[in-house]
Amino acid sequence: MSAEPKGRLIGVGTGPGDPELLTLKAVRALGEADVLAHFAKRGSNGNARAIVSAHLKPGIVELPLLYPVTTEIDKDHADYKAAITGFYEESARAVAAHLEAGRTVAVLSEGDPLLYGSYMHLHVRLSQHYPTEVIPGVTAMSGCWSQTGVPIVQGDDVLSVLPGTMSEFELSRRLADTDAAVIMKVGRNLPKIRRALAATGKLERAIYVERATMANTACMPLADKADDTAPYFAIVLVPGWEGRP
Predict the structure, then answer these.
(1) What is the chain written as a DSSP string?
(2) Of 20, 69, 190, 220, which has the fewest CB atoms closer than 10 Å, so is most exposed?
(3) Residue 38 pairs with which residues in a beta bridge?
(4) What is the rounded average pLDDT of the residues 29-51?
């Protein structure tokens, strides 16, 4: 990488799914960008690309960054770690090539770029070498609790944000020690999440939300959900503020 940075990197938070939750600043950045980079599974453009589609200028160069693996290999397996690390290194080089050519590159990130987002893997590799701006987005969790209209925390409540991919023991331990929780990355982890909530006495107040703010959204008390099928873009909310009126 050159000592004199030329291009500009912009991490663009696209929000949880509803295109109307895209910020004015994000729309401005899309208009300034020469290159649009977005992460996706092979054979798909991804949700973030769909969210911004109405705001893309003619002639913008697109740089799809296609994951080599998603759920085919366990995330803790050495093969997964090697494949995904190599992918992020390669993606950073592809973005850097455009930055070296003096182009402004907008990298899309569902929700907020610095909260469990793939954009972060580019940010830590490139932001020290090129001018970088991060545009925050409405988070998926905020979209969920706003859609359901359920207050999540109040006063001295403690909120824990937990990835559903962690072990059942760790989920139970952390759920037992918090007033409210947001459990992300649900997908095939739902049975384990349900057991951890039951073990800590929080199942009855848990709310299941999938694809929050999107056209095909669904939400219900988790205890009322008859099956354990869930998309990756699902969240379980455990509201706090138990003393509410």
Answers:
(1) --SS--SEEEEEE-BSS-GGGS-HHHHHHHHH-SEEEEEE-TT---HHHHHHGGGPPTT-EEEEEE-S-SSSS-TTSHHHHHHHHHHHHHHHHHHHHHHHTT-EEEEEESB-TTSS-THHHHHHHHTTTS-EEEE----HHHHHHHHHT-----TT--EEEEETTS-HHHHHHHHHT-SEEEEE--GGGHHHHHHHHHHTT-GGG-EEEESTTSTT-EEEEGGG--S----SSEEEEE---TT--
(2) 20
(3) 64
(4) 92
Could you tell me the two tokens for 142? 């905020």
Q: What is the pTM of this model?
A: 0.89
Q: What is the pLDDT of residue 80?
A: 65
Closest of 51, 25, 39 to residue 134, by C-alpha: 25
pLDDT of residue 2: 47
Q: Using alpha carbons, select from 107, 137, 104, 140 the residue that is nearest to residue 124.
A: 107
Answer for the pair 120, 113: CB distance below 8 angstroms, yes or no.
yes
Q: What is the pLDDT of residues 91-111, one digit of tens each?
A: 999 999 999 999 999 999 999
Q: Would the pLDDT of 133 be above 50?
A: yes
CB-count burial class (<10 Å; 0-12, 13-18, 19+) for 53: exposed
